[in-house]
Sequence to fold (245 residues):
Amino acid sequence: MSFHSITYNAKYRFATLHNYGCVFRCPVCSYKLHSGPQGRPGYASPKPARFLSTEEIQAALRPLDLATLYFMGGEPSMARNLPELLAFGKNTLGVRTCLGHCNGWKLDYPHLDAANVGLKAWDEQVHRDYTGREKATIFGNFQRAFEAGMELKANVVYIPGFVGLDQVEAIAAWLGGLSRDIPFHVMGYIPVPGQPYSRPTGEQMAQAVAVCQRHLRNVAMSHLSSEDAKNHAARDDRFAVQKVA
Ligand code: SF4
Fold:
């Protein structure tokens, strides 16, 4: 799909291009927190009224004081003009380029410096039930990007009864096999409409972090409520952004 808006954080000198659309069909997609189940599995953000052209995006970014350009929203690698915008970020703006949240569908872009990849599950069947796609594409892309020297972080959503401790630890162990220093973030599931799973308890989150720390040195976690998730800016000024296009 394509980018539909741009937000800017002057304090931390970053802009974010927001994409619409995703290649996965996750039943627990967090976008449902804002839009409801909308009668189908997967990405469920309301379709924007219009999309930005490449020229509009470039014109909006040029005057900004920027250190980093992020690409997010659904799966940002789906945007057809991503390669052109990455090149613009590196060659014209001279900034760091990063897929701020992505699912690892495609990472091998020449002008991409960094990516934060959501790894969904370890077992093949769980991965297919979660995403509708095979696991090998994602884990293979991550490994090739790591070996090519890309700056990578990873995260997982811990969903007791669906993506359990065994899945979370297996992903951490696989990452640890690449490098024990890859930053890993365990996110507690935030219940979305129409799904049967519960939010993990504080004790379960502590267990999840502990099993990951067997394999990785840099493990963080977040355990947000639905209300927290709808109002990030109240907790963290990196989310306090202004819309510039
Ligand atoms: S990869 Fe992310 S945006 Fe896409 S459907 Fe899954 S949770 Fe939603």
About this structure: Strands lie at 2-9, 14-20, 68-72, 96-102, 114-118, 151-158, 184-188, 219-222, 242-243. The chain has one domain: 2-243. The domain at 2-243 is CATH 3.20.20.70 (TIM Barrel). Residues 22, 24, 26, 29-31, 42-43, 74-75, 103 surround iron/sulfur cluster (CB under 6 Å).
